[in-house]
Amino acid sequence: MSRELNAIITGASSGIGKAIALAIASVGGSLCLIGRDKKRLEQVAQASRAAARRTLVFPADLSADHAVEDLARYVKQNFNSADTLVHCAGAHTVGSFEKISVDVLDRLYRLNLRMPYALTQALLPLLKSQKGQIVFVNSSQGLQARAKASAFASTQHALKAVADGLRQEINAEGIRVLSVFPGRTATPRTKALFENEGQAYRPELLLQPEDVAQIILNALQLPRTAEVTNIEVRPLAKSY
Ligand SMILES: NC(=O)c1ccc[n+]([C@@H]2O[C@H](COP(=O)([O-])OP(=O)(O)OC[C@H]3O[C@@H](n4cnc5c(N)ncnc54)[C@H](OP(=O)(O)O)[C@@H]3O)[C@@H](O)[C@H]2O)c1
């Protein structure tokens, strides 16, 4: 039998992070959910509670250093059985290289790379004590940058490097590190993106957040003799 999951999930108020939270709840896990929007977080918490052993909610803007420190302190005090850290909060932008400013690059870097780096570092002693696991929800852009995505893709390439280097260091301590590289997924972010680009949004042609969540849950529940390191997942319909 796989062991119970006690998961901290950033970006849990929406999209892929929300689906991961509900998937872990469905197998009786415990959750600490993080996002800025308290109301949406509470809705996810409410939906999880029928199946989850315990659900905590920590509303925070993780782009602020103090919020990362506050979260780490909160987890140590209230959720010291945490054994799984899922990084799913992130920011995204699309635009030609000539138009994406350095300020935008800084904003992406702060949330997509600096924050997961700092949060992982802060929680590593706890995760080590639990022989836990860390999931970085990356992006297909973390493997191959496309046009109009160099700023976002650069943070995702760097996030892969963090995961790869960390894995090499901490496997020996019984911690697993997984990077997941989804293609376009039907989430509020993608809907907004399509609308901004004036494209028809057909979510049924995209990956579903629940698909990504199920794949991650499967990897988290594998026997401890195995580690899944990298997962690429694409929509089957190549419509975009
Ligand atoms: N959708 C796709 O096609 C796709 C494809 C590949 C990879 N991904 C990756 O999957 C992850 C989730 O994306 P999604 O599509 O599910 O997007 P989404 O529906 O917009 O969700 C993003 C999540 O991040 C949280 N978040 C954003 N800024 C935050 C901040 N400053 N502090 C704390 N939380 C913050 C949001 O919560 P609040 O708004 O409540 O703060 C929300 O829960 C991202 O890392 C993204 O790069 C998405």
List the helices and strands and how they pair.
Blueprint lengths: L5 E5 L4 H12 L3 E6 L2 H11 L5 E6 L5 H14 L5 E4 L14 H28 L3 E5 L12 H21 L5 E7 L5 H9 L12 H12 L9 E4 L7
Overview of this structure, please?
With 240 residues, the protein is α/β, with parallel strands linked by helices. It has one domain (6-233): Rossmann fold (3-Layer(aba) Sandwich), CATH 3.40.50. It is built from 7 helices and 7 strands. It has helices at 15-26, 38-48, 65-78, 102-129, 150-170, 188-196, 209-220, and strands at 6-10, 30-35, 54-59, 84-87, 133-137, 176-182, 230-233. Helix 1 links the parallel strand 1 and strand 2. The model has no long low-confidence stretch (mean pLDDT 97). NADP nicotinamide-adenine-dinucleotide phosphate (NAP) binds at residues 10-17, 35-37, 40, 61-63, 88-92, 111, 137, 139, 182, 184-185, 187-190.
Jot down its keywords.
alpha/beta; 7 strands; 7 helices; Rossmann fold; single chain; binds NADP nicotinamide-adenine-dinucleotide phosphate; 15% strand; 240 residues
